[in-house]
Automatic annotation (TrEMBL):
Source organism (scientific name): Gimesia algae
Name used for this protein in its record: Uncharacterized protein
């Protein structure tokens, strides 16, 4: 007999093990304020962040057919969890709110295969082709392409590259001005989507380590070299500061996955 738990069909024993892990985390974090040996670290404000790498605490796997444990009990098709990253902290880029700052746009990519070249169009003028290969899609290369547009020019735009997202800020002579959203010119054969929106959040140029307070379960897809991580790189979230522990996530954006081990960004 199985029961649906956290979007997976799991056996009662596996469900109990997950609930035990959650209970362990709760017990330990509730004790933190009483630990006298911790040095006071002051109060830090909550942060909004963008994850810089994918993360899962565990992945769910399934025993093959006709498999048995050491006691000879049948385990065919039973699910079990395998630790991947443990509870290691994850690097995140800290963002800050700029409600009255410069005009900023966020270009996001989503799809099975994000490759090839695109052009960004502003005011009827388009950039030279911009490669989407990770080693080429750098802030320097994207900035150089945008600065060639007659409506932008040199030193008037700043670009931050997150996994699957580009944050574009209008600065210099264009500071304080408003612009229409960029139009993305994609190849007709492209299998990915692009989304452009105005944002009031900017990159603080600061990286922090982040903990997730409960185990996050990814899904094994049959290849030990590729899993569908519970948290995709390039996702947004918020976190609070806990003395003696550090920043702990209290909200993380859910992302879709492709089924081939790579997250849709």
């Amino acid at each position: 007999m199985t029961e649906r738990f956290s979007n997976y069909q799991v056996t009662p024993s596996f469900k109990n093990s997950l609930e035990g892990m959650v209970a362990w985390y709760k017990r330990n974090f509730e004790k933190l304020p009483d630990q006298k040996h911790l040095k006071p670290e002051g109060v830090r404000p909550p942060i909004r962040y963008c994850t810089l790498q994918p993360y899962s605490t565990y992945i769910v796997k399934r025993y093959p057919s006709d498999s048995y444990d050491y006691d000879g009990d049948l385990r065919s098709n039973q699910e079990y969890a395998v630790m991947v990253d443990g509870d290691n902290p994850v690097p995140v880029a800290v963002m800050h709110l700029e409600p009255y700052g410069n005009h900023k746009q966020l270009v996001s990519f989503k799809g099975d295969i994000i490759s090839g070249e695109i052009k960004l169009v502003l005011g009827g003028n388009e950039t030279d082709p911009i490669s989407l290969l990770s080693q080429n899609a750098t802030s320097e290369n994207i900035t150089a392409a945008l600065e060639k547009l007659p409506s932008i020019g040199r030193n008037n735009v700043a670009v931050t590259v997150y996994p699957g997202r580009w944050l574009i800020e209008f600065i210099g002579d264009l500071a304080g001005q408003s612009f229409e959203p960029f139009v993305v010119d994609r190849p007709e054969a492209a299998v990915f989507e692009t989304h452009v929106l105005e944002t009031r959040w900017n990159d603080s140029r600061r990286v922090e380590k982040l903990h997730y307070p409960i185990p996050l379960i990814g899904e094994w897809d049959g290849d030990d070299d590729a899993i569908n991580d519970a948290v995709a790189a390039g996702s947004f979230g918020t976190a609070n500061w806990f003395p003696g522990v550090g920043y702990m996530s209290n909200l993380n954006e859910c992302r879709d996955f492709n089924g081939d081990g790579t997250p849709e960004l």
